Protein 1
Amino acid sequence: MRRAILGFGLCATATLLMAGVMTADGISDRARKLHFSSIVVDTHDDTTQRFLDGKFDLGPRDANGSIDIPRMREGNLSAIFFSIWMPSKVTGPEAVKRALAQIDSVREQIRRHPDALVLATTAAEIREARKQGKIAALMGVEGGHMIASDLGVLRSYAALGVRYMTLTHSGNSEWADSSTAKAEHNGLSPFGKDVVREMNRLGMIVDISHVSDKTFYDVLETSKAPVFASHSSCRAICDAARNMTDQMIKDLAAKGGVIQINYHVGFLSQEFRDAEKANPQIEKDIQAEVNKRCGDNEACQLVQGDNVVREFVNAGKLPRVDYTKIIEHIDHAVKLVGAEHVGLGSDFDGAMMPFGMEDASKLPKITQALLQKGYSESDIRWILGENTLRVMTEVERVSRELGSAQKK
Ligand SMILES: [Zn+2]
């Protein structure tokens, strides 16, 4: 039975190759054309740590990690949100100082590569970058702990070009509950609601990835603009607390928002999650190996974490997860709320990538897989990036309205 299926697969591929429909990398001419004429946006990428800790430069092709200019070009990644991240336990002035250093490091990369990169802060600037043949670089702050409970700091981040903020990371912030910590604020505190309102005024997208379900609903009630999940997947397929339930996805979409599917294997695959849970020693072994390679260098840990998990999978210690699992999550969300509310938030350079989606150069495979599933070209363009551009445009419109309302 197995042999028969394999035989058919090889034969079908050979036929397509002969017809010139598909090239050796499995991407059809139609998919290539569609993918490379679309604006592809990735709303969550953790490469920033590498700029600081690893003195990493985006210019040359790198053997490690998932992101550099050559591979972004190969995958037609047109706009990328670099995450400003540190653990939730870093708070107060230290968190602000480290966030500013990361923002500076992203801006320095843009300054160093003016032919390839341009800072973008609006949907129109992303389209303009595309016209100029450049990659739009954007920034999102991943965790409300980095504003040190100060709206002035939030405004400064906005002024430096940050265009979204995730309200928490894995721990609670001083004013919002996380999905992976014990609730302290019953969702958003009164100050947390002020943060959301100020983000609306500033034109920053409120990012509900990582927050608790109650925080999510408080945000929906408070925000005047659509919000998004910059890197979350579907809880119905993989029961992780920071994935979204079907009802949450519907409620997010009803407000005009977008779920940007996260590629991390532990958020995509229940089988992978169960295997990790069944053997807690594996996680310790992975951590020990990463520590051995990296010490306390966070950038190295992020990249080597992916490598070590891959080695454990190859050794048969953890189940293999393929990139088609990403497609499963996209399809699940599309069936719930339509293609207008689903997008891509990889978590590249900060998580364990599935086989076949090791880096940004592999992105055309998503277009290929969606075409094969029968998705229309316009639906695919929405998913690849147009949905994010629409949310940004809407957030900008609300910001203008609120700004002018305040002047009266
Ligand atoms: Zn995250």
Note: Confidence is low (pLDDT under 50) at residues 1-20.
Protein 2
Amino acid sequence: MSRVRYGTHVFMYPMPVTLLGVNVGNRPNFMALGWVSRVNANPPLVGCGVAKNHYTNKGVIENRTFSIGIPTVSMLEKTDYCGLASGKLFDKSALFEVFYGDLGSAPMIAECPLSMECRLAQTIENPSNNFYIGEIVASYTEEKYLTGGHPDIKKINPLLLTMPDNRYWTVGEYAGDAWKAGMAMKNQSEK
Ligand SMILES: Cc1cc2nc3c(=O)[nH]c(=O)nc-3n(C[C@H](O)[C@H](O)[C@H](O)COP(=O)(O)O)c2cc1C
């Protein structure tokens, strides 16, 4: 077997496709965001890597709030548009039906099956990107996306992203239960 070296690509594989929402001068702006991660459990913190030249930075700095929406597959074209068109040159405020939650300044997208409303907790400045860490103050969904009271990935039908081939994917089949599938092995192998 010949192992191939593949540079230093950040293989978070796949990535979720999300929409980062901010208000700039009271006008909503949304950018596609794949560099997004859980950061802390309690309080619930989420981190977003945003290139320093993006218009979105203005809104985060202005209000210290932002939203993260999970688009469904039928929103692919609009989501990609948000990843191609900058708010510097394009008005993306009328693309979606917008609603606001407790913070009042983090625009969320009604069509997104899931939305998280965040208050900026910390900014880590990296060479090319700002890493915004936000505390989730509330999240929103609709009854139709729930099964047994919990978000159902099949109903939500989110988009996934692979880089560097830059392609969107949908979620495949259920493969097993987390924190359970390895339990018998753990029990047998205890010292
Ligand atoms: C699928 C996809 C994911 C993206 N993910 C990110 C990301 O995580 N961070 C980032 O800085 N830019 C990302 N981009 C690029 C921005 O969304 C894009 O440059 C956008 O136009 C910036 O909008 P703004 O200038 O209105 O903030 C992504 C683009 C696409 C198509």
Note: The chain has a mean pLDDT of 97.
